[in-house]
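4.2 Preliminary Data

To establish feasibility before requesting continued support, the project team ran the inverse folding procedure on a target of 80 residues. The structure was first converted into the token representation described in Section 3, and no sequence information of any kind was made available to the design step. The complete token record follows.
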């Protein structure tokens, strides 16, 4: 079933409309009552992408994104 949505509604709810289209719905976007565009699911082909492992990173420390006290001191305290 095709659902018609006006342009304003599409702009304010784009994320939800994309999710619905990805789930298999076809959504037509209309401007002033005239159909102008169609959202529909993308046909997937082949295998899912696999990481290239280009940097050969095998381990990420648990405190990887923790703040560095030396950098905090340079900027006068909290960096958040």
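Position-by-position output of the design step:
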């Amino acid at each position: 079933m095709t659902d018609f949505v006006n342009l304003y509604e599409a702009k304010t709810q784009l994320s939800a409309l994309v999710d619905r289209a990805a789930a298999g719905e076809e959504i037509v976007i209309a401007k002033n009552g005239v159909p102008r565009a169609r959202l529909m699911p993308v046909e997937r082909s082949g295998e899912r992408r696999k990481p290239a492992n280009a940097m050969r990173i095998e381990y990420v420390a648990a405190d990887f994104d923790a703040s560095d006290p030396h950098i905090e001191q340079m900027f006068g305290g909290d960096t958040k």
